[in-house]
Write a structure and sequence with these properties.
Blueprint: E1 22-23, E2 27-28, E3 42-48, E4 59-65, E5 69-77, E6 83-93, E7 107-111, E8 124-130, E9 140-147, H1 160-163, H2 181-208, E10 211-212, E11 215-216, H3 218-222
Antiparallel strand pairs: 1-3, 2-3, 3-8, 4-7, 4-9, 5-6, 5-8, 10-11
Length: 224
Amino acid sequence: MSGAAGPGRAPAGPGRSPLPCAPRPAATLQLGGGAEPARPGVAVIDLRFPRGAAADVQEIVFRNFYTAFLSMRVQRPGPAGSRRWVTCLRDYRLMPCPHTEEGSQDYFSLRRHQMLCDMDQVTAVRFILRQPSPVWLHFTIEEVQIFPPGQKSPQKDFPSWLSQLSPPEQPASLHGELPDPEKVSTEVQQMWVLTEVIRARQAAARIGRFDVDGCYDINLLSYT
């Protein structure tokens, strides 16, 4: 699950649990100065670990809800024991086209190697969501889970019936039963030539009714 994945996600299995964290509701940025505040299509979600704890992040999994682009910043240790915000992801595309449904509710997985900075000793994560399209009034990300090193995200499950087909129900193999492509091509060309010959004969038959002794009768042509 390195990028967008299909809808539906399996629960975490035994021995794999995400880090405890508390994401805040998305805060939509607004521009004042007019009769009504304008929405620039930007929202922010802050996520912190309990009691100010720090964690090493291996993978972040979430479900999209009509967010077109995602940027991320993490809070990490700075000089002299301070904490500083560092950009670790910039304008990651979640929807191929902001105006259409594709990717709008898919699951995504962002791994450590995709980040622009070190993901150790993270105390907070800030998700910056962008949706430039005016089509969607509300956009966010949901079901955010953060996994430490040594754990993988829950994998998508196929329907159980798909992996439990009995042998008679297995689709038949077509290997060895397909016709020779060169033979098919030759037959198609012959059919095309035959069609052109028939079409030419039909055209000649339509013109022939004006033919008088090998030439055209002007009077017949002028009255048709």
